[in-house]
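Example 3.2
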Amino acid sequence: MHPADGNIISSEAAIDESVSFAHFAVIHDAVRIGAGTRIGSHAVIFPGTTIGSGVTVQDHAVIGKRPHSSVVSTLGAQATDSQTTIEDGALIGTGAIVYAGCRIGKDAFLGDMASIRENCTIGAKSVVGRGVNLEFHVTIGSRCLIFTASYLSENTVVEDDVFIGARVCTASGTVISHRRDIPCESRGPVIRAGARVGTGASLHPGITVGREAVVALGAVVFQDVPEATLVLGNPARAVKKVPPEEFIK
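Structure, written as tokens:
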């Protein structure tokens, strides 16, 4: 369809009659959109995307994008599930990109300009802030808060109720293998339930941050952090135990 408002909507898309569109959105074949969802101007929704009820897709968002590799990629684009799912009540911010094969949970919030690579999962009621970048196969639990411009490398796992401050960076490659014939594993960090990671911290490949642990601002973590332990510095060192009254209730 090419209505007067400039939206291009495939006749093969299944769209509830209560869905509202702004201007110049593009809805491809095999897209399903549930009741009460709002689609902003210039949004693009690719084939194989299912959007639930009461979802907000803001201007210039892209959902279901297929990945492509550059000629110098080390790991390259990943094979994707054919389905991309945005669950009920989620919000996809202005200019955010959700690649194919992702699942965004109920009432989750993706900030403006967030980039969610293929095969990521974001749990219910989690917030992924403005300009956050998730590489492929990142798993975020429920009720997490990830602040502005953080970068989570491939295969990072974040359990429920985790706090991640602004500009936190994780690494997954065990060596820097760019254009070299060097074996390299991809082992993302694991951040256990209720942990807090302060602004500007760096987490090295394969480490685990324990339940209810705290990683202080700017810490560089090379080794596992025991549960309910505060670490700080470069390299990060244990300072004290986190008191039980600070635990998630």
